[in-house]
């Protein structure tokens, strides 16, 4: 069991010791990537002695929508998933920052890559997690030689486990070339997203981000950032973004459950802005981190307390 794992995992209908949550090597999803998953964070507020799960209903709804898109054979509601997650966190007595991974997968032991008529189950595990990528010092990035797959190849609004081969190729390429992260272009050559995060640029005080048709995941953190930015009075435009615009952006940052809000200092060896975190990014990042810890009254409706 990983060192940052919790003692208990939800596995095929019940909470069990994490070391007992195992599947056969013949499991359908292991062979074909036929599963969907979510990434959910919880933030512990020491002063309030409570753990807050960020946008739990939204994440659970997206997970169930993913099963509909992919025809996974399981009957479960967003509300049922929420209840399981809260029970699991309480069972683990989680009192630190956490990352949750619900995974709905084809659990049958059979051949033939398909979604219909294949039994599916759900498992949920939790990890102790603070930063996934550096949020303070700026990330170095490169435009990947790997193209982001389109919605007509693998549905981009569903977090399909098999589709993350695409992300893994881009991430490895970036890291092996000395960078922190990759940036995908879509099939048309426009900017899409990072390997596992949405992307924003700032030009002349206006925030821009790629549209859903740019083969991006409809990010829940992305939606939150757009709301925060608008509440601060910034204009946010969702549009196609050309690759060369990355190089002349005043600011550039990623958003996502894992990455949270992390600024980018370099793309393809070009320094973004003056090489420091930009004022708009810094303000949004500050409010976001306050919001997820229950320190922004205007955004308390985004949080589900565990205790």
UniProtKB/TrEMBL annotation:
Pathway(s) annotated for this protein in UniProt? Amino-acid biosynthesis; L-leucine biosynthesis; L-leucine from 3-methyl-2-oxobutanoate: step 4/4; Amino-acid biosynthesis; L-valine biosynthesis; L-valine from pyruvate: step 4/4; Amino-acid biosynthesis; L-isoleucine biosynthesis; L-isoleucine from 2-oxobutanoate: step 4/4
The processes (GO biological process) annotated in the record are: isoleucine biosynthetic process; L-leucine biosynthetic process; L-valine biosynthetic process
Q: What are the entry keywords? A: Amino-acid biosynthesis, Aminotransferase, Branched-chain amino acid biosynthesis, Pyridoxal phosphate, Transferase
Q: Identify the Pfam families for this entry.
A: Aminotran_4
Decide whether keyword Transferase is in the record.
yes
Q: Does the keyword Transferase apply?
A: yes
* PROSITE patterns, sorted: AA_TRANSFER_CLASS_4
Quote the EC number: 2.6.1.42
Any one Gene Ontology molecular-function term assigned to this protein's record: branched-chain-amino-acid transaminase activity
Which cofactors are reported in the record for this sequence? pyridoxal 5'-phosphate
Reactions it catalyzes: L-leucine + 2-oxoglutarate = 4-methyl-2-oxopentanoate + L-glutamate; L-isoleucine + 2-oxoglutarate = (S)-3-methyl-2-oxopentanoate + L-glutamate; L-valine + 2-oxoglutarate = 3-methyl-2-oxobutanoate + L-glutamate
> What does the record give as the function of this protein?
Acts on leucine, isoleucine and valine.
Q: Which family does it belong to?
A: Belongs to the class-IV pyridoxal-phosphate-dependent aminotransferase family.
Question: Under what name is this protein listed?
Answer: Branched-chain-amino-acid aminotransferase
Source organism of this protein record: Leptospira bandrabouensis
